[in-house]
């Protein structure tokens, strides 16, 4: 990898952006590609698939071979609310390979005793999300039921194009949430990205079951992003 490609590749990785190094194995040469960049027609599908799957591979087209070396940022799960569902999610997310963190300004809930093995911030989301911005490889789950805590991160998740945005609450609760978010300038299409009620429809009742439903929906959103099926 030449120095300019290395710098561009590392800069994208440091900024938590997807990036792909395309190397011409037949004629030589390489270039760094970001999602949405224009590529040769014969490579477009393979590049799109690489960004979706995160799998590097060799592709042959037009009598030439190319190596697609793709890097995707590790998926992050940001949970708003140090609640019982979050406790169950913490262990499940770790097993599934997600870097999970919890934000909840309510110090009585956000304690190390309740969450010994997860990154925990007893701060307001407005403060934490400024210091640790959301991005396209982050999933956000709002679980407090409190508009003063949930609404801001939901809006930021939509604006940051998080691959998953979910919110706990009944349809009646969500209808009120929609009106509040509309008042902040979000469109119906943007608000429609919020999964509410949160989680896959598996009839979940207990906090652990709801956590399973949420994590399943998060995984599906990550793996199907950009495919038109998620």
TrEMBL record:
<dbReference type="InterPro" id="IPR027051">
    <property type="entry name" value="XdhC_Rossmann_dom"/>
</dbReference>
<dbReference type="InterPro" id="IPR052698">
    <property type="entry name" value="MoCofactor_Util/Proc"/>
</dbReference>
<feature type="domain" description="XdhC Rossmann">
    <location>
        <begin position="77"/>
        <end position="218"/>
    </location>
</feature>
<protein>
    <submittedName>
        <fullName>XdhC family protein</fullName>
    </submittedName>
</protein>
<dbReference type="Pfam" id="PF13478">
    <property type="entry name" value="XdhC_C"/>
</dbReference>
């Amino acid at each position: 990898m030449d120095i300019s490609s290395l710098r561009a590749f590392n800069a994208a990785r440091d900024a938590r952006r997807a990036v792909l190094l395309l190397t011409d194995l037949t004629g030589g040469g390489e270039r760094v590609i970001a999602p949405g960049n224009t590529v040769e027609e014969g490579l477009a599908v393979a590049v799109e698939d690489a960004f979706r799957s995160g799998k590097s591979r060799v592709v042959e087209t037009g009598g030439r071979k190319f190596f697609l070396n793709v890097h995707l940022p590790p998926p992050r799960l940001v949970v708003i609310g140090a609640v019982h569902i979050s406790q169950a999610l913490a262990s499940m997310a770790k097993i599934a390979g997600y870097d999970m963190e919890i934000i909840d300004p309510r110090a009585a809930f956000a304690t190390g005793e309740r969450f010994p093995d997860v990154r925990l911030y007893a701060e307001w989301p407005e403060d934490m999300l400024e210091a640790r911005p959301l991005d396209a490889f982050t999933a956000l789950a709002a679980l407090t039921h409190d508009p003063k805590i949930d609404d801001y991160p939901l809006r930021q998740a939509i604006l940051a194009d998080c691959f998953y945005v979910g919110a706990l609450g009944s349809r009646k609760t969500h209808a009120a949430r929609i009106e509040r978010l509309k008042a902040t300038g979000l469109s119906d299409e943007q608000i429609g990205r919020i999964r509410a009620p949160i989680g896959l429809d598996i009839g979940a009742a207990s906090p652990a079951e709801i956590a399973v439903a949420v994590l399943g929906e998060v995984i599906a959103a990550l793996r199907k992003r950009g495919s038109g099926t998620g």
